[in-house]
Amino acid sequence: MTRPPASALLLGLAGLLPFLWGAATVLWPGLGLWSAETLGGRFAGPYLQLFYGTIILAFMSGVLWGFATRAEGPRAAAGYALSVIPALWAFFTTGGGPTSAATSLAVGFLALLLLDAQFARWGLAPAWWMPLRTGLTAVVVLCLLPVIL
């Protein structure tokens, strides 16, 4: 099965909303001002994308850790070690201002896709995992571009 379950697809798409909203508030400054005034500064522009992106990279570390529990021996140890990389990457690379933080997050999400592929090659991720992750990652990276550029 290469199609993700409906619930996984819907939750994955819902998880894109903060990235999409953040990109929209960067591209249309009037919307960004409205969002900051109405919803609060946390829900506009780069701040929304960077804060949320950091949380999602940490969350994805947990997902990979869960995949690692399906392995045994040295592969399990490798899986656990690899699974903490996205969270550590976000922690250590996102503090230098919006442009560098957004660049680091984009690199982190692309590297996460490589980790996803490795876990899939090891047979630890469901067959539908890579099609879902590839599409979600593409949208996330595209949404970070307005902050990077």
TrEMBL record:
The keyword Transmembrane applies. Keywords: Membrane, Transmembrane, Transmembrane helix. Pfam families: DUF3429. The chain crosses the membrane at residues 46-68, 98-115, 127-148. The keyword Transmembrane helix applies. PANTHER family: TRANSMEMBRANE PROTEIN 69. This is Membrane protein, putative. It comes from Oceanicola granulosus (strain ATCC BAA-861 / DSM 15982 / KCTC 12143 / HTCC2516).
